[in-house]
Amino acid sequence: xxxxxxxxxxxxxxxxxxxxxxxxxxxxxxxxxxFPFGPGQGDLELEDGDDLVSxxxxxxxxxxxxxxxxxxxxxxxxxxxxxxxxPPAKESHPGLFPPTFGAIGPFLADLDTTDGLGKVYxxxxxxxxxxxxxxxxxxxxxxxxxxxxxxxxxVTWESVAPYQGPSRDLDQEGKRNTFQAVLASSDxxxxxxxxxxxxxxxxxxxxxxxxxxxxxxxxxxxxxxVGFLWKSxxxxxxxxxxxxxxxxxxxxxxxxxxxxxxxxxxxPATTNGVVPADVILGTEDGAEYDDEDEDYDLVTTRLGLExxxxxxxxxKALRRGxxxxxxVPSVLSPRRAATERPLGPPTERTRSFQLAVExxxxxxxxxxxxxxxEETGVVFSYNTDSRQTCAxxxxxxxxxxxxxxxxxxxCCSCVAGYTGNGRxxxxxxxxxxxxxxxxxxxxxxxxxxxxxxxxxxxxxxVVMNHGRSYTAISTIPETVGYSLLPLxxxxxxxxxxxxxxxxxxxxxxxxxxxEFTRQAEVxxxxxxxxxxxxxxxxxxxxxxxxTIDTELEGHVPQIPFGxxxxxxxxxxxxxxxxxxxxxxxxxxxxxxxxxxxxAAPSRVYTYQWRQTITFQECVHDDSRPALPSTQQLSVDSxxxxxxxxxxxxxxxxxxxxxxxxxxxxxxxxNPCYIGTHGCDTNAACRPGPRTQFTCECSIGxxxxxxxxxxxEKTRCQxxxxxxxxxxGAADPQRPIPPGLFVPECDAHGHYAPTQCHGSTGYCWCxxxxxxxxxxxxxxxxxxxxxxxxxxxxxxxxxxxxxxVIPLPxxxxxxxxxxxxxxRLPLEGNTMRKTEAKAFLHVPxxxxxxxxxxxxxxxxxxxxxxxxxxxxxxxxxxxPTTIIRQDLGSPEGIAVDHLGxxxxxxxxxxxxxxxxxLDGTQRRVLxxxxxxxxxxxxxxxxxxxxxWTDWNRDNPKIETSYMDGTNRRILVQDDLGxxxxxxxxxxxSQLCWVDAGTSRAECLNPSQPSRRKxxxxxxxxxxxxxxxxxLYYTDWKMNSVVALDLAISxxxxxxxxxxxxxxxxxxxxxxxxxxxxxxxxxxxxxxxHLCLATPGSRTCRCPDNTLGVDCIxxx
Length: 1114
Prior knowledge:
With 1114 residues, this protein is mainly β.
């Protein structure tokens, strides 16, 4: 076997390297020798862009591929793939291999045509000239067979560029690739012809959006996922996936002509793998080469069995040999069936060299024994080598979830008020509906003829806050209907999904999001045979309903017509391992037959039950609390009924999930757990101490919890439904068509402030009406720091006082968290986290910027919902709004405590303004060359102003005098998304945090050098300074983080109780820094605005003053 594999590898390397050693000049394929292409040939043209997919190309005759003979359309992608089914949006750019869709890849890589120079052409051609030429290519590769195609699909990638990622590779500048794929089909077989002209492959690697570095292209075929209820990887073949092999595609061949590669892809011989041609290139001197010669192994790069794990192949293949093992792929050489062509010794011109092809066969799922799971601990795990980020995968999360990046990938988690696994989320306490289909093939009693039913409807209704599920399966034949009554677990899985959760325990939907497969076996004691139940849950459809497919097959004991079945309440232990849940139990049920002669005989029967549930969990978040290894499902009541007239089978169960227990402690008698709470069916029951509880209306409903009424859908929700409906993609199980943008709505139905295109990876900010904010669009891999302009709704409950809660003496950090400002006392540089309290509640606002006036002990803020600028005294009292007119999106704000002025940035109006502390005498300082101004700070003693502009094309930090003169760029190089800015009057240091570079940096404005304080920050937003520390707010951690400037290290973090986004932060100093400027005495002698400059001041008039009583002077 090893010798055979070695010979195969030698043959493959010869095929690639012999032309380099022996072929004479001029033997390569020229571009003129490609199949004719372009608009003049009737070609269709793929839209310019990145990661795009064509509409379906309908075929006149069927394409055969692996074991399929019914492919009637194909899809062409930018990235060097012809797909046999529409690729899902989440697989629009190259990632894990094999993909879930059928793929033919002549040059699978991340390619780009956004500049309009490269083109992708495609057509189906029935003309004799094209089909005859295709036949000649196939005959050269397979000279002993007769093949006459009736049609050919011709796809040409002309002068396409590599996707280069955030940092451009100068070595790839201007390099372009041209290659072609032809799929020729007859009534009985299909072949693929790949053509690589001379100088057609100028680059061999592209930047991977998932791995964030250059990876080689791939030549491969994949059958895609197979199976109805249980999806698994079909067969796939990888022919080249390293740089050397890719480089030699144009110089070598398997068909006798350089640059032309031929593969048999659809026939009886390709059920388990694509068959490559095996004709080696000839040599000028007619030399012959011995198949057994292994010398080439010493000088060539081999792709063999031992190299599978180490080959630099980004598109990693998950190869599962079974449910609990991974098999190492073997290097196979698929041979032809004897019926396809005669097998005989190869001729001298057609040596039997075979490519060292990696072939992987379809695997089938199985039920896992519970004992095996407990022994091994891990049944299977998902590949996590290829790191994916939220930037290009936000669409995989629910619209009611947030996406967070971690060291090894991203995870989704439902926002407050919703429950689920993050990929799928539903409002807590809201009723749920489950719809699906059931098919069965069941032998009843001793009958040798099965009862067969297909396409039978299943409908289930769940009252989530009671844990009750009602399931009905319609049109069940009466010959089997009564005999299925004991199988309450068919509907019981839905009860487990929405079982009432006790503290610290999770029901099935919280764990799986309603996306899982379940296989169960039922063995009836004393009855031969068993029944197998297969169910696949596919998440939430376009109607907001969960979807399920069920298949029943096997034997059940016969229950007489008209009988009733009674099942006592029971408990069942669920064992949890990585991505797998198992359980087994023994159940009893009582069958009471119809009354005869005044008696109704009854008898108790038993069946043994075991099940395996497999699902995909996110393994990247190490901080997520681990599930208990065992949870107990308690089914408090079971009701089963078969209606013979309507032929409907009904199951009703009441469920809760919690710890393993024998009795029911008092703590578990809370009305939320036992269903006596009386909350509205559209409300969640929140357990309190002992038997106390509250009712809270679900998201999308309003009321006191006892009675809830529905709120109308928002504009964002309507737009989303309209777009999906028009595109025929309203079913979430169908991929969103590539190139289609669908807006994201937040948990309350408003437009999410950050919108991203699922196909291109570009992100941008939107306003409350969903309109793009100009200048905010960022390149793939970078998320702009967008601000929500809509305040979250105020929940019913006790009114929150808006008055200021006075601060005790000392220095405090003040930070904004949506509708409130919190205070965090400092003792030296230590945050006294246990003493953190709310300073001000303004629940209808989104507060962004904060600034502090150390003279009057007044805090100032910007609010982007109204929008407005407000202030409040630290000594207490009511807050006041000082500016509410002519504002767009006020964000950063700063106070000149000496000149008694405020300055603010407005990223909507693209300007910087100044006004007196009471909001009067406004004047625009700058309204040109600003795109996304945000942070702003003052150096009051020196009369300088500093601000950031996170313009995604030209981020910068600028400075000027406070009067607007001497404007200049202070920092421009190596910036990403500069957000927060702070100036320390004591050390004269200007520091900033950058969400794009993930760095904190400082400089002295009077000196050119800058210092990188710390790298690797998560997503910093605002920053302030005090003593030796910087304190910044972070969007990903929802925390205030302390950073020691002296040792360049984060030393502490404070996470508020309420986990929502943190915005501005400032230091409320106990006393002002010593110093003065020329405006600090008598307003500098100015009639209106006094604006300090270094060593002087300027008197300015407000914009809204005619000037008769205002004097401007320097």
